[in-house]
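Appendix B.2, paired examples.
Example (i):
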Amino acid sequence: ELAGMFLEDSPRMLAEIRTALDRRDGPAVKHTAHTLKGSTGVFKVQSAFDAALRMEHLGRDCDWDHAEAVWLELTHEIAGLSRTLRAMLA
């Protein structure tokens, strides 16, 4: 059930983070990344959790110089976790 919820909610959260990054809205990046971090933590995939944590810190610090690199890492890690979860559900 949690895997299904993650697969349903994570694309929306990523879209919210992308929009917040584009607007340079640090609090929104921080909030949504924090929520995504919690969702990834359930599955004990440290690399995805760490990427979400880095995005959360980026939003907190408004560190726009590193935004694209952290975004690429986060999307890569969430895509990998999503593939794994879809395979488990199949």
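Example (ii):
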Amino acid sequence: MTLEMIAEVASLTTDADGVIRITGTRIPLATVITAFHQGATAETIVQQFSTLNLADVYATIGYYLHHQVDVDR
């Protein structure tokens, strides 16, 4: 059996006010990244925000780490 590699990207949406949110939730990207900077694990973030799922939080943190300069602007 061969494992097919598929690149996963963070599911982010910009709302009408220009706020980037985790798609399907009201949680802003900044909230997840702030929690991450404060030392929260992905699991802890999911416990704090029940509308998030673990895979999306990991994808969001991964996206941030790959695009930190742009996101921090």
